[in-house]
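Now for a concrete sample entry.
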Amino acid sequence: MHSPSATLLIIDDDQVVRASLAAYLEDSGFNVLQASNGLQGLEVFERDHPDLVICDLRMPQVDGLELIRRINALQVETPVIVVSGAGVMTDAVEALRLGAADYLIKPLEDLAVLEHSVRRALDRAQLRVENLRYREKLEAANRQLQASLSLLEEDQNAGRQVQMNMLPQTPWMVDGLQFAHQIIPSLYLSGDFVDYFRLDERRVAFYLADVSGHGASSAFVTVLLKFMTTRLLYESRRGGVLPEFKPSDVLAHINRGLLNCKLGKHVTMIGGVIDEQAGSLTYSIGGHLPLPVLFSAGESYYLQGRGLPVGLFAEATYQDHVMQIPESFSLTLLSDGILDLLPGDTLKEKETLLPQLVSSAGGTLDGLRRVFGLAKLGDMPDDIALLVMSRNLA
């Protein structure tokens, strides 16, 4: 999760120990700075801003505890690992109380223990940075929500700009996965919405939502959806480590939130989490049609699932579906507005045709634009949203 080229600062008055630790950590891929005492270490710290500090406890002039205090006074989030031969319990307690990431006892018979401590501390520091970023996003989304209530009433153009700014980057690449989307509103503001974001170092979440109705009132609900999902993610992260994130729980959370708001709006949704480490997809359906279409090895088929719309029934429950994803695949999510573009007299005929069209599009967003003729669309009776996730497509 942390940068493989993170910079470490080792502060130790024992030159042999310092050189040994530096050589091992450099072999492990880190950039290593060195200082022979606390004062010199502080100078290097303020000049080079390392990602992590490893310091001895007993040093002349400025000892390890005082070093931690002075780093804390700089109001930075740099983790400090104390490595000491003193082995006094009170020192260890005080170091940890001051915020040390770890306390290791010399001599270190296995330097892999130190490397593990370093990587764990860097990961935790990165999570703290991400927590701060999510908190800032939450505060920004909250401010945006308050402003949007009046802006959507007074100025459709401002409302459209707010909505577009909330959409994720497209296309977006993350560890070999590509996400791409397009939303075509029937009016100036759309009731369809998509989002995708990294949960942690191994999981990526996504959803597609289709709000009932059209125009400003439906577009407002998309702002509310963004706010609720961002707040839920931030609150889940407050412990430092994100727990298992079930799409069914998210749909249930949004269901309660929409019912409590009493807006008279409901949403059909598909939400999912891709676990890159496990190679799995977990998804949940909230009354949404058409179902997701998986394309792999030249063939397309619907994923299975069902569930009640979100924000309509207080007793609604949602189910998680888990499947392994192929090494090469695309997953296409569409709002029901796409069905207006398909030939056929019945819903069944249209749904039967859809996987064939995804196959002919090669499972890509550009291919779907071509197959559906999206560039030539006139006024549509319903909003259209497309979200395509893919990996290793030829």
The two ends are 28 Å apart (CA to CA). The chain is about 40% helix and 25% strand.
